Amino acid sequence: MHELSITQNMLDLVLEQAEKAGAREVGKINLVIGEMSGIVDDCVKFYFDFLSKGTIAEKAALSITISPTTVRCLDCGRSFKPKESDWTCPYCQSNNKEIVAGKELLVESIEVE
Amino acid sequence: MEIKVLKDILGANEQIAEKNRQLLDSNKVFAANLMSSPGAGKTSLIRETIKRLRGKVKIGVIEGDVASSVDADIIGKEGVPVIQINTGGGCHLDASMTYAALNSLPLKDIELLFIENVGNLICPAEFDLGEHKKVVIASVPEGEDKPFKYPLMFHKADAVVINKVDLLPYLKFDTQAFSRTIKGMNQKAEIFPVSCNTGQGMPEWVSWLLTQLGNRAKMH
Fold first, then answer.
1. Domains in chain B: how many in total?
2. DSSP result, A37-95
């Protein structure tokens, strides 16, 4: 639902970095989006086409890597992907844990000319 | 040529949020960002809290809604300064909207600021507004499964208010199981079962707020 503002922020960041590098055109944008962020990648692509028009990023390809939610058990130290409605540790049944991945909203890199 | 960026997409929002936090701190205001699904009772919780702190704590409110000033009108009747933000379709408040609202409030005369976010369990979780604490309100008719469906929201909460507990006799809602789920995702979350209708649990919630206010005051 919040893809419009996320995409605008992402585009601003990309343009700032591209201009700093003196680029004429942005060819590719590599994003990492956490599964927990609830971002729908098709929406980001849709808004990006619309927002990037008239900028040096208008022809850029978007590559989106979804980072799956990963939890680390603080008792046995093992990492696991939580089940849909059960986040207890599958190895030691502990409920004591931290989220180590799945929250990302990153521009990892851009390819420019 | 490839350029490594590795920057948070919401970095710009976070910078403005930091500015908001400084503005709040310099005016000795403690701010809580209240988030929930529509109808969970954010406005009722604010209203009931104002009633209990009248004459003790100076309260201000920012109301965020897609449209209308229904909530600001309700809160305005309680005689506290209130600013309505209409996001005009936007599903969450962001730091720059909050900044504009902060500048329209008499911050010198406010000790406790409630920022009522747009009713939505997804988007508001991503946007730091410059608040000191994030409070999620979950009402019992919504069901026990919400933390599994919206993990980011519950993961980021400093406090979770379980509202409408007066309805528990009519519902299948296991408060203990719900609390266990939240603690499993977020050990720091304080949990307050309340009913804005009957007043049950309100003293504990209000006491937590007063502790937060006291902690802020000590820092200045």
1. 1
2. GT--HHHHHHHHHHHTTTSTTTTPEEEEEEE--EEEETTT--EEPPBTTB-S-TTT---
Residue B123 belongs to a domain: yes
**Residue B132 to residues A4, A13, B34: CA-CA distances in angstroms?**
26, 26, 11
Residue B112 lies in a domain: yes
Tokens of residue A52, six digits: 């990037």
CB B2 within 8 A of CB A104: no
Band (B168; pLDDT cuts 50, 70, 90): very high
- What is the mean predicted confidence (pLDDT) over A62-72? 96
- Structure confidence at residue A2 (pLDDT): 86
How many whole angstroms separate alpha carbon A79 and alpha carbon A97?
Answer: 9
Between chain A and chain B, how many beta carbons pairs sit less than 8 Å apart? 98
For B109, the domain range is: 11-212
pTM: 0.93
Q: What does pLDDT average to over chain B?
A: 96
Q: Which of A17, A23, A87 sits opposite B185 (nearest CB)?
A: A87
Considering the domain delimited by A3-112, tell me its CATH architecture.
Answer: 2-Layer Sandwich (3.30)
Three-point CA angle B43, B48, B51, nearest 5° = 130
Given the cut 0.90, state whether the ipTM is greater than it. Answer: no
Chain B positions with Cβ closer than 8 Å to A? 1-13, 90-92, 94, 120, 122-123, 126-127, 145, 148, 150-152, 155, 180-181, 183-185, 187
Angle at which helix A3-20 crosses helix A41-51, to 10 degrees, equals: 60
Query: Is B173 a member of any domain?
Result: yes
Residue B41 belongs to a domain with what CATH number?
3.40.50.300
Domain membership flag for residue B220: no
Residues of B with CB below 8 A from A18's CB? 3
pLDDT (tens digit per residue) in A23-55: 999 999 999 999 999 899 999 999 999 999 999
Contact of B38 with B120, CB cutoff 8 Å: yes
Beta bridge partners of A86: A83
